[in-house]
Amino acid sequence: MARRNEVRIIGGKWRGRRLNFPPVAGLRPTPAMVREVLFNWLQGEVAGTRCLDLFAGSGALGFEAASRGAESVLQVEINPKVIRALKENIRRLEAVQVGTVMTNVRKFLGRSPAETFDLIFLDPPFGEGWVGRCCRSLEEGGWLKPGSWIYIEAEKNLEVPEVPASWERQRHKRVGDVGCHLYRRVT
């Protein structure tokens, strides 16, 4: 059983290792059941990818991808306490392929990308309208490669708004209070 401020990595080389995170209001780690669904969908697609974990929080999605062979993971988070915990988890796991950026996601996506990404995790705070804005910024800002995978985690009743025409929904499922949406950029 997981302790209050930790989650376990469920697959890959760090399977069973714990990620600690601070008790910060609004921080909502992706549950193990949801991560299991997602990484089953992505089976065979994660190894060798360059991942962008927006609204990283506990880092569960990004560390899970790194554990499963992602070439690199960039975690974007604004809260300094959360960034310190992410960096400590990187140190404990010796996760040299994982990096962090402390900034607002809107500001981060508003700049020109230094690199493009194969796999995006978008798990914003629920009920704040981030999903549509981030989807547009990812597409229009040049953050995605052709064939990129985009995972969106949102409220279970939210139909993902304003997804770019170049994205095709591949999978969709509701798990508890969470809506899981997996898209692929087809152009």
Strand and helix layout:
Elements: E1 6-8, E2 18-20, H1 32-41, E3 50-54, H2 60-67, E4 72-77, H3 80-93, E5 98-102, H4 105-110, E6 117-122, H5 130-140, E7 144-155, E8 167-175, E9 178-185
Parallel strand pairs: 3-4, 3-6, 4-5, 6-7
Antiparallel strand pairs: 1-2, 7-9, 8-9
Task: Tell me briefly what this model is.
The chain has 187 residues and is an alpha/beta fold.
Please tell me the CATH architecture by its name.
3-Layer(aba) Sandwich
The N- to C-terminal Cα distance equals: 43 Å
The main pleated sheet reads as: 7 strands, mixed
Total domain modules: 1
Supply the CATH superfamily name: Vaccinia Virus protein VP39
**Low-pLDDT residue intervals, each spanning 5 or more residues:** none
Based on Cα principal axes, name the global outline: globular
What portion of residues belong to β-strands? 25-35%
Fraction of residues in helix:
25-40%
CATH class: Alpha Beta
Instruction: Determine the structural class based on helices, strands and strand pairing.
Output: alpha/beta
H/E series: EEHEHEHEHEHEEE
Instruction: List the total number of helices.
Output: 5
Mean pLDDT: 92
